[in-house]
Write a sequence for this structure.
């Protein structure tokens, strides 16, 4: 795995203590915005103050556990990447539904089932390699980026009591401008801390503009300094009516995790070509296990934070040591309600600016992944419709929410999940009558290079192969055509034509072109003829041709059964 | 299908090739080159900017041309090869035999 240029400290690197501490604070500053999710759910569930504190503390403790499990990568749990977890309001519908029918304690039983469901889906995703392709991974990353950006714009555009448009705009420009300035025009430590410096600038600007309401400061002063959460303090029970919403929520959390983990892989590997489904499985298992433990602590379901992953990548540090320190900070803050409240004070335009900054990196990364592959009509439609649904999540959510039953509302988890789910369903559906393994017969004497290129490009698009690999295959295949025809290796079918059957096979790791013909096996050369030999002997041209073919493809295999010959050109992706 | 056009620039004959240099078009190219050399040309520059394919038979043609020009103390230069063609010349060891430049101007 080669570290990308923009990454100063990669997964296995150990940054100096003072740097990793500041970076962990930077991450906490970003994740701090999601601390408001727990109080919101506490309010919707009708929890009293003690129960609210329990929920908030437990969620934060579980977040710390989650980031540790994710990075630890032991006993098949965790991807090894820096991929923190955050609360999400998208699970509210399911949780409130369960509370309505089964009581408060069943809510946390549901969270436990969500965790188990995530772990089960993790194994399923790995088996469905043909469905969870590079393009789907790219779509997930793109939607995460667009979702972050959309949320950032919303935070910015929302009218804040006591804050004018001018103040909101100024705070956004100050925060975003500072982040961009340090990220683009500085290097080393300043670039590492660009997001944090922007947040500090925004906070200081908020102070001078009196953008933080007195009521927020009052809450801060009233908050207690220390609180000890107790496991199952609110309760824990299981009701069969919570199973379906839990499984559906687990599926969508797993899909969201798939996207964030793909982003983490992509950001850490300059030579990334496809998702490592084994590590993704381990990563989703870590998330599921975290949520199961979270249920016992009476916390809110957590999902992977694409934003935190983007923050790490955009500032150049994706080290697992960052995870250790972040877990430590989360663990400490979990026992300190005053600290939790302080992190919630950050004005929303400042957080909105941060989200816009991070969204840029993530969205473009996803776009690059999708664009790296050839797409046929089926893939274009599956990805396009998924993308449109994903970005149109809010109007879809509003309409669907109004007309659907309570149970179905849990289906609308997030734009990422909706988009990926739609693409996966359509991709599976489009496999019907998809004759990807086509065989076409070419008249070697009268076919042209353009005919071969057209066929291989169509095959490449059907398979979703990388354009660069298909290009190499086109060249080598025509080279093979020439060798077979020019050197009389094909037995003529009649006076006017030689037939070559062309077929392709693709398995995400290799693109194989198979040529079947009747005649003589092609001699493969592992060493090239000398220049003198080529001048002296015309047959040396065939030797050079065989050598070129041997080198243009990653592997060349021949076999024959009497006069029926097969030439296999294998290109590694 | 190969299109061959030539134009004199300074003391060199710049030969612009367009299309594919496969086994059949290589024979035509070899014939033309040998006629130019017989006619007194000693400095040949081949422009590959519009060539998308070259076969081993074509490589032999350039070898023959280089040998003939070497005998009359001439030179042959190749320019504007795309990445795939450059790969072919590198794999075959032919890139060591020729001066290869990015543009015609650099070759002159």
């Amino acid at each position: 795995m080669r570290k990308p240029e923009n990454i100063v400290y990669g997964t296995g690197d150990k940054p100096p203590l003072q740097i990793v501490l500041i970076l962990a604070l930077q991450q906490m500053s970003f994740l701090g915005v999601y601390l408001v999710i727990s109080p919101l759910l506490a309010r919707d569930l009708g929890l009293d103050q003690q129960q609210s504190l329990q929920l908030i503390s437990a969620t934060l403790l579980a977040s710390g556990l989650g980031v540790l499990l994710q990075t630890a990568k032991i006993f098949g749990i965790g991807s090894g990447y820096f991929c923190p977890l955050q609360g999400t309001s998208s699970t509210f519908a399911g949780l409130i539904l369960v509370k309505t029918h089964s009581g408060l304690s069943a809510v946390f039983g549901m969270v436990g089932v969500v965790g188990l469901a995530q772990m089960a889906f993790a194994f399923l995703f790995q088996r469905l390699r043909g469905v969870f392709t590079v393009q789907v991974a790219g779509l997930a990353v793109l939607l995460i980026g667009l979702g972050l950006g959309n949320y950032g714009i919303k935070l910015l555009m929302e009218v804040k009591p006591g804050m004018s448009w001018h103040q909101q705009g100024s705070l956004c420009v100050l925060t975003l401008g500072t982040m961009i300035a340090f990220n683009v025009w500085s290097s080393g430590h300043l670039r590492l801390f660009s997001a944090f410096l922007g947040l500090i600038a925004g906070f200081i600007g908020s102070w001078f503009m009196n953008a933080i309401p007195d009521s927020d400061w009052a809450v801060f002063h009233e908050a207690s300094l220390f609180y000890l959460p107790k496991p199952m303090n609110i309760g824990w029970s299981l009701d069969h009516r919570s199973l379906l919403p839990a499984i559906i929520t687990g599926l969508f959390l797993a899909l969201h995790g798939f996207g964030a983990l793909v982003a983490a892989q992509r950001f850490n590997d300059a030579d990334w070509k496809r998702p490592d489904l084994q590590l993704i499985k381990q990563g989703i298992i870590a998330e599921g296990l975290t949520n199961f433990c979270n249920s016992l602590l009476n916390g809110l379901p957590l999902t992977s934070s694409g934003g935190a992953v983007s923050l790490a990548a955009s500032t150049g540090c994706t080290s697992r040591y960052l995870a250790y320190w972040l877990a430590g900070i989360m663990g400490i803050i979990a026992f300190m309600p005053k600290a939790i409240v302080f992190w919630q004070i950050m004005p929303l335009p400042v957080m909105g600016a941060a989200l816009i900054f991070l969204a840029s990196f993530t969205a473009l990364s996803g776009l690059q992944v999708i664009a790296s592959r050839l797409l046929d009509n089926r893939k274009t439609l599956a990805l396009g419709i998924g993308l449109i649904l994903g970005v149109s999540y809010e109007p879809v959510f509003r309409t669907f929410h109004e007309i659907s039953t309570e149970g179905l509302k849990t289906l609308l988890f997030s734009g990422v999940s909706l988009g990926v789910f739609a693409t996966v369903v359509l991709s599976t559906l489009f496999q019907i009558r998809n004759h990807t393994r086509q065989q076409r017969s070419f008249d070697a004497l009268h076919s042209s290079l353009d005919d071969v290129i057209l066929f291989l490009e169509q095959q490449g698009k059907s398979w979703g192969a990388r354009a660069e690999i298909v290009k190499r295959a086109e060249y080598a295949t025509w080279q093979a055509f020439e060798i077979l025809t020019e050197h009389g290796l094909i037995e003529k079918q009649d006076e006017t034509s030689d037939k070559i059957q062309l077929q392709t096979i693709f398995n995400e790791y290799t693109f194989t072109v198979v040529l079947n013909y009747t005649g003589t096996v092609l001699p493969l050369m592992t060493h090239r003829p000398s220049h003198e030999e080529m001048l002296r002997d015309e047959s040396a041209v065939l030797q050079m041709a065989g050598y070129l073919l041997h080198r243009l493809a990653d592997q060349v295999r021949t076999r024959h059964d009497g006069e029926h010959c097969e030439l296999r050109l294998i290109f590694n992706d | 299908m190969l299109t061959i056009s030539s134009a004199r620039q300074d003391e060199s004959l710049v030969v612009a090739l367009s299309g594919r240099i496969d086994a059949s078009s290589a024979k035509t190219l070899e014939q033309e080159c040998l006629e130019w050399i017989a006619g007194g040309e000693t400095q040949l520059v081949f422009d590959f900017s519009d060539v998308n394919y070259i076969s081993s038979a074509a490589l032999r043609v350039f070898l023959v041309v280089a040998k003939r020009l070497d005998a009359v103390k001439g030179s042959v230069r190749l320019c504007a090869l795309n990445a795939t063609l450059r790969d072919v010349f590198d794999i075959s060891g032919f890139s060591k035999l020729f001066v290869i430049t990015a543009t015609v101007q650099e070759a002159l």
In short: DSSP finds 24 helices and seven strands in chain A. Chain A touches chain B at residues 449, 471-472, 475, 478-479, 482, 486, 528, 531, 534-535, 541-542, 544-545, 547-548, 551-552 (CB under 8 Å). Chain A has a mean pLDDT of 85.
